[in-house]
Amino acid sequence: MSMAPDMHVILRLPTRTLFEGRALRLRAVAPTGAFGILPNHVDFVTALVPSVLTVQTVDGVERFFGLDEGVLLKKGHVVSVSALRGVLGEDLLSLQQTVESTFVQMDEEERQARAALSRLEADMVRRFADLQRPQP
């Protein structure tokens, strides 16, 4: 592998790509603690815990992402991050507010979806039970 001045970072969520671009460094948090990656870091893979992921782009701008659990894969000059949920914040204060509002809303929507699914499952079980009863 040749020495590189930067790395390509891709941050994916289940429904979309949250960030893709060139970066000088990246900071994240694994179950064993916080770590940083520079462009010529050794290849590896790790789980990520709910935390803040920081990316310094090649133009010197730091981007802050609030992530739920996920996985980070560093291979060559490419860093791929896949997370269950994630949001971009302009700074740490706005990120905290965005995470709170977005994740609370997502949790409520997930709760409603689980309740609807439970009702559908219960209805399906009742219908199967009705099919097994002898007809008069």
UniProtKB/TrEMBL annotation:
Pfam families: ATP-synt_DE_N (PF02823). CDD domains: F1-ATPase_delta. It is found in: Endomembrane system. GO terms for cellular component: endomembrane system; proton-transporting ATP synthase complex. One of its GO terms (molecular function) is proton-transporting ATP synthase activity, rotational mechanism. It is a peripheral membrane protein. Keywords: ATP synthesis, CF(1), Hydrogen ion transport, Ion transport, Membrane, Transport. It comes from the Bacteria. InterPro entries: Alt_ATP_synth_F1_esu, ATP_synth_F1_dsu/esu, ATP_synth_F1_dsu/esu_N, ATPsynth_dsu/esu_N. Residues 7-83 form the ATP synthase F1 complex delta/epsilon subunit N-terminal domain. Belongs to the ATPase epsilon chain family. Produces ATP from ADP in the presence of a proton gradient across the membrane. This is F0F1 ATP synthase subunit epsilon. The lineage of its organism: Bacteria, Pseudomonadati, Pseudomonadota, Alphaproteobacteria, Rhodobacterales.
